[in-house]
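Lab notebook, bench 4. Still working through the backlog of constructs that have no structural model yet. Next entry is a single chain of 195 residues. Request: give me the structure tokens for it.
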Amino acid sequence: MLPPSDMLDGLKLRYGESQRHYHTWDHVEALLAHFHSIEATLFDPEATLWALYWHDAIYDPQKSDNEDQSADLLREEAAGILDSDALDRADTIIRATQQHLVPEGVSAEDRHDLQTFLDIDLSILASDADVFDTYEANIRKEYAFVPEDVYAQARAAILSGFLKRERLYFSDHYHNLWEDRARANLQRSISRLTS
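Model written out:
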């Protein structure tokens, strides 16, 4: 079940806030394109779809609890619409985007959906070089309040953290499709930030 149109209209307003340059409705639409290509493989496509719409609903670059706030907003707005199991799954997916790791103790079915969502959420890392560079520039705009030297050091550390992972993409499909290009983009960005 799709979220009601009035809810989507409210989300579009949120994703259109002035502090956003990457975390916009365009990001949601990019993920929707991936979602529709893998929807049939998901254990709970409805929960995954609602998580997709709400995962960046709250976005303040100066705060560290955006994912928790977004999950709380979903719980508030979807109460009585999504059943409790789907709502719990969507909540878990959103909160997992904070570290981009699958939490311990989830079922095999939930693990599959979580891994798939986390993979498509990082699809931008494997984009063509010019698209990736625009993404990096837009992230910088979202953190325009941070001095350049501080930003460069912090951003390089974040990207290096991803690069140190054994796998950026959990699923074999996306690992085979995106891993090498994503790693090349990350390395190029780190080199630029640290030079």
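Notes after review: The chain has two domains: 1-121, 126-195. The chain has a mean pLDDT of 97. Flag for follow-up if needed.
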